[in-house]
Amino acid sequence: MSLEDKKTVFRQFLGASMSSPNVLLVILDSVRAKNTSLHDARHETTPFLSSLAADAATQYTQARAPSQWSLPSHTSMFTGYHVPEHGVTAADAGIRSGETIFDELNEAGYETGLFSENPYLTSLETGLDSGFDTVAGASREPLFEGANPDEFKGDVGGFLQAALGSGRPARSLANGMVAKLAWDYPDLLPDRLERRLGSGTVPGSTFTDLFLDWVEGTDEPWAGCINFMDAHHPYLPNAEFDKWNDGAITAIQQSIDSMPLGFYDGSDEWWKCELLEYLYDGTIRQLDREVQRLVKALRERGDFENTLLIVTSDHGEGFGERSRLRNVRIAGHNVGETEENLHVPLVVSHPEQDEGGVVDAPATLTAIPRAVRRAVEGERDLGAFTEPPVVARTQGMLAPQQGQLSQAGIDIDPLVGESDVLYESGDDFVYKQARWNDRTLSVRSIDAATNFTDRGVGVERIQSVFDGFEDAGIRIEADQDTITEATERRLENLGYR
Questions:
Q1: Residue 169: its pLDDT value, please?
Q2: Cα–Cα distance, 113 to 218 (Å, whole number)
Q3: Where in this protein does the record say 3-oxoalanine (Ser) is found (predicted)?
């Protein structure tokens, strides 16, 4: 049965079902498996998620992302198509409406909501938001209680009217002044405030609140997706979670010229990139608290027992690790097929699940739509994520970054071009085969922190698997003319420009 036929059967089933479970997909953007307590990280970053996996969920220890950056990964996670099938691998690409699992759920009567500041989900014309009744994107919390200038998108008159009628006109006007300074005169703000506001980042707690408010006013069944960006560059954990930073790392972070390009053009030293991992761990601990808040609230509402909860990441992050295939060090997630960028956490709690479980077989996030369909049909299928093939296709630097590095006289050859990766089960390990240009690589992956080159094994399988993929015909050119100045700045601050 083709994927389209499966979608049709699923819609027909939902139309006849009166007790469909809720669905919540939580994406911890940029969180790699290696730095979670789930995978024995050196810091206790995910205590709650670890306890959830032990008591009421299934942990997939060898889960892999479809790609190393947000747009192609989310496209696979939402549609069920592998990257070589959907072909959405550039910033100017998207998908036609009606192709995601949330479109299917919405058509079948689910209330659907998307909550994230990730511009590829909620700001750009990528088609990934088409299946949602409610879409809540980037809007920073105001510094003071009062009117929020971010809600007026350049409508100065509208903001002034709201500020004067808010009951807190002075504080509201102060919010407007701070927002103006953050965008146009960031050097006038204190360092920590400038980093928070000027970066355009929104704390994950904002989207937890928005989601819970939405659920409170939503008739069941509902299907929601929250993408938390706290662990994405620029790595700004709140003081409560900044547990592994003695203060000196913050000063070093502020001295970095550009992330990630500064590490590739030589303006920044790689040891600084390595130190950023301590801040990164703080942001993961911060996200763990948000997952805890979500589960606690759903349990108090009596919703958790009737909810399929999937907690994962769209890709990982590099802090100076070397790609064995490209022979280049990796900063962030702009290039590469390393395990730091592809090995991600995956925890799944099915409705009424009251015990923990562990699956060690290779698992793919491209199977999320398949897993959702089966769970909604009443099936607790732990193998939905592990059905082969488990593959990834990664890209090189985006065009704007290539141009900047070329102008700086940097050899960009190791930083461009696609890599294909295939994962298969071995004896107590996962066998990874990868190719890039005319180079190939075989790796044995034992766990999130342990993998080594297997020089005695060829990579013949990868050719046959990728030759079997066909174009799904869902890719479209995204409209670039509607990108606002605020979105452009956010993309630049996130390292995509």
A1: 78
A2: 10
A3: 70
Length of the chain as a residue count: 497
Q: Could you state, in order of their start, the residue ranges of all structural domains in the chain?
A: 21-138+200-493, 140-198
Residue 237's Cβ-side half-sphere holds a number of Cα atoms within 13 Å equal to: 27
Determine the residue type at 400.
Answer: P
Taking CA atoms, 193 is separated from 150, 186, 490, in Å, by 16, 9, 16
The answer to whether the CB of 404 falls within 8 A of the CB of 351 is no
8 A C-beta contact, residue 421 and residue 371: no
CA distances, 299 to each of 24, 91, 351, 469 (Å): 13, 39, 12, 42
**What is the enclosing helix (H) or strand (E) of 329?**
strand 328-332
Cβ proximity of 412 and 401 under 8 Å: no
Structure tokens at 169: 């006109």
pLDDT digits (tens, 9 = 90+) for 195-237: 454 445 688 999 999 999 999 999 879 999 999 999 999 999 9
- Hey, what CATH class is 21-138+200-493 in? alpha beta
Collect the ranges in the chain with pLDDT lower than 70.
1-18, 138-156, 159, 163, 172, 174-201, 456-458, 479-497
CA gap 309, 22 in Å, rounded: 8
CA distances from 266 to 107, 270, 275, 323 (A): 51, 9, 17, 18
Q: Which two tokens stand for residue 37?
A: 């307590």
Query: What's the rounded Cα separation, in Å, for the pair 139 and 176?
Result: 13
